[in-house]
Amino acid sequence: MKELINAVMEQQSVGACKATNDKDITPIKVTEPTAERLPRANISVRNWLVDDVASWFHKNGISHELRILYDFQSGSELLDYGNDFRRNFDQEKKDTRKRFEKKFGEPMNTVQFNRFKDALYRLIDKQDCIQRSYRF
After folding, report:
1. Rounded alpha-carbon distances, angstroms, from residue 84 to 24, 35, 77, 80, 93
2. In which element (H, E) is residue 4 found?
3. Is residue 122 part of a domain?
4. Could you say which of 15, 50, 116, 125 is the most buried, measured as most Cβ atoms within 10 Å of its Cβ?
5. Which domain of life, per UniProt (predicted)?
6. What is the C-alpha separation between 3 and 110, in angstroms, rounded?
7. How many Å apart are CA 13 and CA 42, to the nearest integer?
8. Residue 7 lies in a domain
9. Does residue 26 lie in a domain region?
């Protein structure tokens, strides 16, 4: 009886993997990360993945062009850059304007840049506050 059950199970698993023709094969769709969801609230910003960063840009109303320009792949990259950005704001602003114009062929929108700066500062301040509260 056990052998019969094993034979049937094996046949079913083999049958499930077989496709009789190309019409039976459904291609896997690869999509860009959706920014509609919020960054995962239950994890530290330092552990954010690229989807979480994209969601943060979207949630804060920061342009897609700025997200592409910066191309952060993790929350750590975002926070580390933010700390450098804060220390060297004037130079970073100049460099970002130049890079934006070179990449997109148009001037960077000042409102969008300020929105990015404000959101980044809030994120850094929030992260610093969380870290200080864990020290005590």
Report:
1. 53, 25, 11, 7, 12
2. helix 2-17
3. yes
4. 116
5. Eukaryota
6. 72
7. 38
8. no
9. no
Distances (CA, A) of 47 to 25, 38, 71, 91, 131: 36, 14, 16, 28, 14
Residue 11 located in a structural domain: no
Cα–Cα distance measured from residue 28 to residue 21, given in angstroms and rounded to the nearest whole number: 16
Digits of tens for pLDDT over the chain (136 positions)?
656 555 555 555 444 434 444 454 444 433 444 445 556 666 889 999 999 999 999 999 999 999 999 999 999 999 999 999 999 999 999 999 999 999 999 999 999 999 999 999 999 999 888 777 776 5
Q: Are 124 and 132 in contact (CB under 8 A)?
A: no
Closest among 42, 7, 45 to 124, alpha carbons compared: 45
Kindly give, in sequence order, each residue whose CB lies less than 8 Å from that of residue 96, ignoring residues fewer than 6 positions away: 69, 108, 113
How many domains are contained in the chain?
1
- Ordered alpha helix ranges (H), 71-109: 75-87, 89-104
